Amino acid sequence: EVQILETGGGLVKPGGSLRLSCATSGFNFNDYFMNWVRQAPGKGLEWVAQIRNKNYNYATYYAESLEGRVTISRDDSKSSVYLQVSSLRAEDTAIYYCTRSRDYWGQGVMVTVSS
Amino acid sequence: DVVLTQTPVSLSVTLGDQASISCRSSQSLEYSDGYTYLEWYLQKPGQSPQLLIYEVSNRFSGVPDRFIGSGSGTDFTLKISRVEPEDLGVYYCFQATHDPLTFGSGTKLEIK
After folding, report:
1. Residue A7 CB: number of other CB atoms within 10 A?
2. d(CA A48, CA A113)
3. ω into residue B49 within 30 of 0, thus cis?
4. Residue of A nearest to B6 (CA)
5. How many angstroms separate the CA atoms of A35 and B10, rounded?
6. Distance, CA of A63 to CA of A50 (rounded, Å)
7. What is the DSSP letter of B60?
8. Is the CB of residue B103 less than 8 Å away from at least one CB of chain A?
9. Least CB-packed of A48, A62, A88, B34 within 10 Å?
């Protein structure tokens, strides 16, 4: 059974940084691209970042709205993917979802940016 | 960036009737490999989104055949025949052809 669990959310002050983690199991992690998608309260879905697998040289792609403030990474030995977000702003407040090539999704983790 | 325009914004449907959602792209979504990376998602209230359709018309595992995706180029449609209570929620189209990847703004399906 595919399992995806995001951790690392919480309350962060504006200007701060956060590292979200996504632990997975139940599939061969090495074979898949991984994505982060976020959803601000009451709003639609926004794709954030993608990291491809080793076959694609771990290429990374980012939403333009976040580029320069966000870094996606993965550790195949731990079947995990990470999202580092810096210079956090109030508009980064959202549920952040980790997805396996968008076919399986975690339950999401809430990030609140507020003083 | 590719803009996906979904219509209608909301839809109220009688149980058993058909629902249709349109997704129009600002650019062709056909990739150089010949595939069209247009997907449909349903987000039920209080839940994570779930993949319904990938590559325009392929149903993901376990998705009922009441869900039918079609289209090409820049115009795509999701049809839900015989709407059931569990179909309510917000439907999103999504493109993975062009970087950055983008979602449509969503269509809320309500049951009359």
Report:
1. 14
2. 17
3. no
4. A44
5. 28
6. 9
7. P
8. yes
9. B34
Identify residue A9 by its one-letter amino acid code.
G
Side chain identity, residue B83 = V
Distance from CA of A45 to the nearest CA of B (A): 7
Is the N-terminal amide bond of B45 cis, ω within 30° of 0?
no
pLDDT in tens, B75-102: 999 999 999 999 999 999 999 999 999 9
B96 in contact with A, Cβ within 8 Å: yes
Specify the pairing of strand A60-62 against strand A45-51. antiparallel
Token readout for A103 is 């076919």
CA dist B23 and B104 (Å) reads 7
Predicted pLDDT at A98: 98
């702003």: which residue's tokens? A89
